Amino acid sequence: EGQVVESGGGLVQPGGSLRLSCAASGFTFKEYAMYWVRQAPGKGLEWVSGISWNSAVLEYADSVRGRFTVSRDNAKNSLYLQLNSLRPEDTAFYYCAKDPWQYSTGRGYFQQWGQGTLVTVS
Amino acid sequence: EIVMTQSPATLSVSPGQRATLSCRASQFVRSNLAWYQQKPGQTPRLLIYSTSTRATGIPARFSGSGSGTEFTLTISDLQSEDFAIYYCQQYNAWPLTFGGGTKVDIK
Predict the structure, then answer these.
(1) d(CA A57, CA A33)
(2) Inter-chain Cβ pairs, chain A and chain B, closer than 8 A
(3) Which of A58, A62, A98, A116 has a CB 3.0–4.6 Å from the CB of A93, allowing a cystine?
(4) Parallel, antiparallel, or unpaired: how do β-strands A58-60 and B62-67 relate?
(5) Contact B98/A45, CB-based, under 8 Å?
(6) Does A107 reach chain B within 8 Å, measured CB to CB?
(7) For A44, which of B46, B91, B101 is closest by C-beta distance?
(8) Which residues pair with A22 in a beta bridge?
(9) Are A107 and B96 within 8 A, CB to CB?
(10) Percent of chain A at pLDDT above 90?
(11) Distance, first Cα to last Cα, chain A
(12) What is the pLDDT of residues B9-27, one digit of tens each?
């Protein structure tokens, strides 16, 4: 089923920016929609963004729309999330997750999860 | 936005007993409902998709049922490794949404 590994988290001041990356292996990355899901420490899960296999469909939660940008590089088997205008409430573990279906536009469930990368806004 | 409501928030169950977790959607989601398990300090793990299909490697003691707006995750013969938080998630419409979770702990 493959593996995804996130990186890029860290401590940033309010109003700052970060770029998260997700490296995929063990599956044909270019064929699958991908997602970002976050979880504030001790809280529940929140879907953040999704991108279709060909980047034609980009979706965002209202809480991040206009501040976060999802993208992918299929040649590098990588998913990205650009986080701008960060707020303290964006503090969370950010997980990269894989859609189950090939050539999906997204709007699926999360078949495979990474270990997450922690973003702290303070 | 489709709001997912899970109940109860906490469920205390003895090992070997059955746990029944509920998930309600504020709008019709057909069978586009998944369940995840998360243990402390671990990543969420897919248990069930399409309401009732177990993911690869998930034991048969986990079963899902329901349709439309009312869904249930049943864990029969609870094992020690099943004590965790369980989340439901709808994927019938954007934005994708999760329930608040049900914590299953040891009675």
Answers:
(1) 9
(2) 59
(3) A116
(4) unpaired
(5) yes
(6) yes
(7) B101
(8) A6, A79
(9) yes
(10) 95
(11) 36
(12) 999 999 999 999 999 999 9
State whether B43 and A62 contact (CB < 8 Å): no
- Contact (Cβ atoms closer than 8 angstroms) between residue A95 and residue A22: no
Where do the DSSP E strands lie in A9-77? 10-12, 18-25, 32-39, 45-51, 58-60, 68-73
The answer to whether the Cβ–Cβ distance between B93 and A107 falls below 8 Å is: yes
> Which of B43, B96, B100 lies nearest to residue A115, judging by beta carbons?
B43
The answer to whether A111 faces chain B, any CB pair under 8 Å, is yes
Pairwise CB contact (< 8 Å): A110 & B46: yes
DSSP assignment of B46-104: EEEETTTEEPTT--TTEEEEEETTEEEEEE-S--GGG-SEEEEEE-SSSSPEE---EEE
Q: Is A40 on the interface with B (CB under 8 A)?
A: no
CA distance B17 to A103: 41
Closest by CA to A82, choosing from B11, A73, B57, A27, is A73
Average pLDDT of chain A to the nearest whole number: 96
Give CA–CA dist A118/A94, Å, rounded.
6
Give the strand order in the sheet containing B19-25.
B4-7, B19-25, B70-75, B62-67
Query: Is the pLDDT confidence value at A104 over 90?
Result: no
- What tens digit of pLDDT does each residue of A43-77 get? 999 999 999 999 999 999 999 999 999 999 999 99
